[in-house]
Amino acid sequence: MYELLFWRYLDEIYLNNQEVYEALLEKQEVEGLEILPIQLILNRISSVFSQWEKVDDNSWKNNTGKGAFQIITTPQSIKIDCYGTEGKTMNKLVDILEEFKCPLYDPQVPERYDELSE
Asked: pTM of the prediction?
């Protein structure tokens, strides 16, 4: 499994990304993060991945190729667990979340890919 995590900071706020990640995994509310339009984001993902089988409300499976993913949300975050998913598919998910100004935090590295990261 490969994890992708997304959130958006309030203006003028930037926190320790690893600590934010750990708090969001525990489904804690993090002061300094925006509330996300979760349903809009899920609808956009459903639209982009309409050729994939929707296993349940938060899971998709590629019946014509590799991979599956599951989405876990909090009001402030979107976590996508990718199973055997190709890089181009993960990039497509990252691009969708970028549309909502939610840059990727990759906990495997660990690095957040936004204009404030070094």
From this structure: 0.94
